[in-house]
Write a structure and sequence with these properties.
Helices cover 34% and strands 29% of the residues. The protein is an alpha/beta fold. It has a single domain, classed as 3-Layer(aba) Sandwich (Rossmann fold), CATH 3.40.50.300. The radius of gyration is 17 Å and the shape is globular.
Length: 225
């Protein structure tokens, strides 16, 4: 088994905008080891979101090769992408992306339902919510939770299938500074305690300074990292 959880080689992504081709990524190569904490930074239009979508198996590169936890991703079908995404990647978004009519417990159970887990879902979801400090709020709906609490639910949901990677896209962007600090501490502690590989897309230098390595993108190229 490779020591690298992510191996990206000459990744290109081109979009067709009418008759014009737009290059979002122009031959990006890097590796991320298991257990690393890495941030991705760059100005608007630099290719951060495109790269995040490819790394998270939400999209495929136009050219290049991508290995996720030892599996070659770039030629996968949509169904295969969905399967590896559910098994290998946990997502945390700026906007939380919780189901508003479902309790915290039901939101955390959801990836297990998609994965076809039949038994033990509720118990595992309860344990995950306790781990992120929401043991007394698990039957509350998102509208009954603060922003910081909603993000904790999202983190518990992202980790419920024991993914190889936790990908966080501006995870503190919608939070006040106190809640943002708590969420970053929670994410970093998960790395220390569980060895989960963490990738954070951020525009905040303070967030990036807390990660072990920074990948800097500009105009679809990797400047450093």
């Amino acid at each position: 088994m490779s020591e690298w959880v992510i191996e990206a080689q000459d990744i290109e992504k081109t979009y067709q905008m009418g008759e014009v081709e737009v290059s979002a990524l122009c031959g990006v190569s890097f590796q991320i080891a298991a257990g690393e904490v890495v941030s991705i930074m760059g100005p608007s239009g630099s290719g951060k979101s495109t790269l995040m979508n490819i790394l998270g198996c939400l999209d495929r590169p136009t050219k290049g090769t991508y290995m996720l936890d030892g599996e070659s991703v770039e030629a996968m079908t949509d169904d295969e992408l969905a399967s590896i995404r559910n098994r290998k990647v946990g997502f945390v978004f700026q906007s939380f992306n919780l189901l508003s009519r479902s309790t915290a417990l039901m939101n955390v159970e959801l990836p297990m339902r998609y994965a076809g887990v039949k038994s033990g879902r509720e118990e595992k979801a309860r344990e995950a919510l306790i781990r992120v400090g929401l043991g007394e709020r698990m039957n509350h709906r998102p509208t009954e939770l603060s922003g910081g609490q909603q993000q904790r639910v999202a983190i518990a949901r992202a980790l419920i299938n024991d993914p190889a990677i936790l990908m966080a896209d501006e995870p503190t962007g919608n939070l006040d500074s106190k809640s943002g600090k708590e969420i970053m501490n929670l994410i970093l502690n998960l790395n220390k305690e569980r060895g989960t590989t963490i990738i954070i897309v951020t525009h905040d230098p303070n967030i990036a300074s807390q990660t072990g390595r920074v990948l800097r993108l500009r105009d679809g190229l990797l400047e450093s990292g």
